[in-house]
Design goal:
The chain is mainly α. The protein has helices spanning 8-25, 39-46, 48-60, 88-104, 107-136, 138-146.
């Protein structure tokens, strides 16, 4: 399985545009008043929490952050933020979309945001996981058994 041609940040931008479109032209159940929508900025700022250390950890490990070339990974990073999520960069993109949906204030935007996670898992993460299994074998399998794809350590750790 080869990684798709569309980079994950572009997927995120397309979803953000779709959120705006549905909130503007098909606003299903407006959820928040204007002052409450400011909370969305906090959620978007929170999105930096998993992404920033993930980039730093990849740089320190001298491995690639290129989502189209996971087979080029020089190291399997499993500590730091990667001890809590196997996909901190994608988690950050999802948090950005959720924050944007809060800013827009409509349930329809939030639904679009929540659809990002299964889509990116199917079109991007699966290919990456397959490449990492091929590259790191049992070490990667043990890591997958220890840490969830999106967030949290598995029971027994």
């Amino acid at each position: 399985m080869r990684a798709p041609l569309v980079p994950p940040p572009l997927w995120m931008l397309m979803f953000a545009a779709a959120e705006w479109l549905v909130s503007r032209y098909a606003p299903l159940l407006p959820l928040l008043d204007a002052p409450s929508r400011r909370f969305g900025w906090w959620v978007m700022a929170l999105a930096l929490v998993p992404a920033a250390p993930a980039f730093v950890q990849f740089r320190r490990a001298h491995t690639t952050v290129n989502p189209h070339r996971p087979e080029k990974a020089a190291a399997l990073v499993t500590d730091g933020v990667y001890a809590w999520t196997r996909n901190p960069m994608y988690l950050s993109l999802a948090l950005l979309l959720i924050g944007w949906a809060i800013r827009l204030g409509a349930l329809s935007a939030l639904i679009v945001a929540l659809l990002f996670m299964p889509l990116i898992a199917r079109v991007q993460i699966r290919a990456e996981e397959q490449a990492l299994r091929g590259r790191f074998g049992d070490e990667y399998e043990r890591y997958c058994r220890r840490v969830h794809r999106w967030f949290g350590r598995r029971a027994g750790d």
